[in-house]
Amino acid sequence: MQIGVIVNTVYILINISHEFSLFFLILLKSSTMATLDSNILEYESKALLTPSLDDIKNVLSKGLPSNFETVSVDVVECPNLREAPFYLASEGLCGDPALLELGGVPYLLPLVDRTRLYDIKTMCQKALPSLPEMLVIGAGAGPYPFLGTNVEGIFNFKIESDGTVTNNSHVAQVDENLDCKLHKLEQNETRCALLGNLLLTQGKPGKVLRVHCKKRIGSLDFITSIRKTLADHYPSTIGLGGVFVLKQGKAKQHVMQDFSKTPIETETQLNTWLKFYEMPANLIAVGTLITDEADLDLRLQHFHSFSTGKWGGHYHIDTTPDVVEYEGYFVVGEQIVRVDKPTVTHKFGRD
């Protein structure tokens, strides 16, 4: 009888232990997927140089022909970017434009820090509380809980004055067949993981910089050619944000696979983990560029694209220089806001 009681007691304890183990595993998983409170993150901001659009137009008009055969740079009224081929969440790019960088590559490499899961909506409201409404566009790591896997984020949503969100954001995924798959985010999904580079504006109509380039004759991609031209001319930090469309040709783009279980510490390991594709036009890319790090450990350029089909990802460069055509619309950031800057950093994996 005593032996039976002991056996039953041990059996019950084992089952209780098993249930507690499952409970703590679920609790651990939930805690690692909890969104960080935007109010407790560290924010730092710096004013940026804001030359006139006409001045930037003249600088780019002189510099870009070294990389493209056909170049047209103009100051124009912003077209309605809600319409094709742009499909943004607001019609314009104007109204107190600011650049925001959150997190950073050190939260992804060499191993992921899953605790870095942010709510962009509340973060932007905290960073720029004076804006009654806000267009948020840019590139980052998408919210991994959305599909249960690592994804590229293509952020494109409008925060209305009443707090509601019009969300045209997408995520790009490497599926089980190693193919690229594009998903539209739900209206209330405003999270971002690990890192992001965003343009924040009121999304109003107004004057913007239009950059139209065809036939690449140099080695630089569209965004790098703009950034380096500005960096060579202006002695202080200048930042742009906006949208461009690859209208003709194809582009080399990557999509991250699910988080690596082993450390990624070399370019070879990184490029093996990333999945590269040659993606055809039309590609609609959103993001930011800045001419230097401004002592804030910044990523100098970061654009992600989406499409009306299956394609989306991180823009590198066009692969069809003879036929490529770009059309972009940009505004000048008045400030850069740095959020949750890594305390331990590196320069690896920022292409």
From TrEMBL:
Protein's UniProt keywords contain Membrane: yes
TM annotation in the entry: 6-28
Keyword Hydrolase annotated: yes
Family annotation (SMART domains): DUF1907
Keywords, comma-separated and alphabetical: Hydrolase, Membrane, Metal-binding, Nucleus, Transmembrane, Transmembrane helix, Zinc
Compartments where located: Nucleus
Annotated GO MF terms: hydrolase activity, acting on ester bonds; zinc ion binding
Cellular component, GO annotation: nucleus
CDD domains the record matches: DUF1907 (cd17298)
InterPro entries (alphabetical): C11orf54_DUF1907
Domain of life: Eukaryota
Residue intervals of the DUF1907 domain: 59-339
Principal location: nucleus
PANTHER family according to UniProt: ESTER HYDROLASE C11ORF54, PTD012 PROTEIN
Subunit structure: Monomer.
Protein name: CSON006522 protein
